[in-house]
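Tokenise the fold.
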Amino acid sequence: MAAKPSTGNARLLVVISVVAVTLSSLSLAVAASLEAVRAGYYLAADARLRPLAELDASLYTHLYYYALAVHPARRTLLLPAEPGQVRLLATFSRTVKAKNRGVKTVLSVGTAGGGAAAAAGSGSDPAENGFDGIDVAWRFPASAVEMAEFGFLVAEWRAAVPPGFLLTATVYFSNHVFDAPFAGVDYPSDSVARNLDWVNVMAFGLRPASANVTAFDAPLYDRASHYSASYGVVSWLDAGVPASKVVMGLPLYGRSWFLRNKANNGVGAPAVSSGPKQRGSNATGAMSYAEVQWLAATRTSSAVITAYDNASVATYVSAGDVWVAFDGVAVVAEKLAFAAHCGLLGYFLWPVNYDDANLTVSRRASQAWTQSKSSPDLRNITGARQTQAPVQLPPALQSPAPTAPTSASFSWRTLDVRLQLGALLLVFYQL
């Protein structure tokens, strides 16, 4: 009688069998070219604002789990320290696909310092959670060396993953990082175009929260500077990345200030400080879209002013001594018309947790994108080539979501091979 295999060998045989079967299936189903991307980032840390089960998955083609960190010393993926977030990670793809079988889920991976609590969960393998792709959320390479390492990283991951597995990156609003500590910090556009399915351009968060005057946080146009979504997006196209690999970001948060004088409430009005801390963003100077709407609705009508700026394609609301720049539905529609005019692959919303109870922005964005793509003239969009020299260079992106530090002490180039294999295996275990 044949000897009974050990438990370890039996498990290995099962894994090998699963991998072999899945690779065979993938070879027979090469992914077709994408027609459009209607994506959303779901912030795991803010799941309390909108449970994943309450999200209308039919409004998106791709949903991102944001984010897992990489331990800087061990170079392994860190599971969340909070048990609820661990469960969310384990069930993310299954929950989303139960509502929309056609939606793709992508795991966004960034860098982090990694405290003791976070490191405690690093022994678990997230490769069993059924994601269809991985996103490199390196925010942001800060030197020419780090940019080169970014290019090496995406090339190695492309070589490691099977056909049909998505590789994307969350990137700066421009292909050139204006405020980097060293000069000439440009993304490796050739590697990006060759190895990534697309880049998610964070065309928002362009004003620092510490500014002492009110300002638009994500204007489509700014004729006086390079501080605009249009300039950032077009810079990627001019760098040689095909429009079919560029996805434009739309913010679902607003940037807020306390006005110095309630009577002086326009763009550029003096401010005394960042706006009030909110439950949604959990930060001063930032409000979720839902909170912006609540602010406007709860103040007396005489104290609320909402304005749409045609030149910038941006909106603000002034409610008493609080001033907020945000993307309303009219701005969203105009931005998506611009994206369609440029031939971009699509858009993403950051983050979908911040939408209101009716998912107003998510619904309007989906409708506007469909309408813009089907329009014979793609509307009368102007300013796509905004090339004037800037009055001043824009500051670093300052989104209210958790940012990943860019430190020379941590090199993505030296990521452990287990992380690369983890990316490969993510596709194998569909729940």
